[in-house]
Amino acid sequence: MSSIDVNSVLSQIRSLSQQAGVRPAVLPPMALGTEVAGTQATNASQGFGSMIRQGIASVADTQNAAGKLQQKFELGDPDTDLATVMVASAKAQVSFRAMVEVRNRVVSAYQDVMNMPL
Q1: In angstroms, rounded to a whole number, what is the distance separating the alpha carbons of residues 27 and 42?
Q2: Nearest to residue 59, comparing CAs of 27, 82, 81, 86?
Q3: pTM of the predicted protein model
Q4: Do residues 65 and 88 lie in contact, with contact meaning Cβ atoms separated by under 8 Å?
Q5: Once rounded to an integer, what is the mean pLDDT over residues 59-63?
Q6: How far apart are CA 13 and CA 19, in angstroms?
Q7: Given this model, what pLDDT does residue 70 score?
Q8: Which of 21, 18, 19, 40 is nearest to 29 (CA)?
Q9: Which element (helix H / strand E) includes 95?
Q10: Which positions ≥6 away from 94 have C-beta within 8 Å?
Q11: What is the DSSP string of 3-69?
């Protein structure tokens, strides 16, 4: 299994989202390391669990939207073209991979803290 650099994945997500004209909803700005005025206090008050739930919900929404587009294309909807379906599927795949990588980093950090000598 290959190791994925989180920073490179996040930079790819940012560049793809800029090309598509949308903001990535995988992680809030504070988690990406880019603080926007006023967002630090807002995110801190929401809590870590809330941020994770929002990220998971966003990934699920992206995957559901891609699935609906795939189904429309398979049923022969004339308003749905293959390029749109493929882009939506790729976005869902990238957001899922990013979420899994974030999960892996959180688990690794937890294990590091638990293994610290007292």
Answers
A1: 14
A2: 27
A3: 0.58
A4: yes
A5: 95
A6: 10
A7: 95
A8: 40
A9: helix 82-114
A10: 9, 12, 13, 16
A11: ---HHHHHHHHHHHHHHHT----SS-HHHHT---TTHHHHHHHH-HHHHHHHHHHHHHHHHHHHHHH
pLDDT > 90 fraction of the chain, expressed in percent and rounded: 49
pLDDT for residue 52:
87
pLDDT band for 24, please (50, 70, 90 cuts).
very low
Report the pLDDT value the prediction gives residue 61, as an integer from 0 to 100.
95
Q: What whole-number distance in Å separates Cα of residue 72 and Cα of residue 2? A: 34
Residue with tokens 């190791």, as numbered in its chain: 3
More confident residue, 5 or 48: 48
CA distance 26 to 55: 5
CA–CA gap between residue 5 and residue 98 (Å, rounded): 10
Q: What's the token pair of residue 63?
A: 């995957």
- Using a 10 angstrom Cβ sphere, with 0-12 exposed, 13-18 middle and 19 or more buried, the burial of residue 117 is exposed
* Measured torsion, CA atoms of residues 112, 114, 115, 117, in degrees rounded to the nearest 10: 120
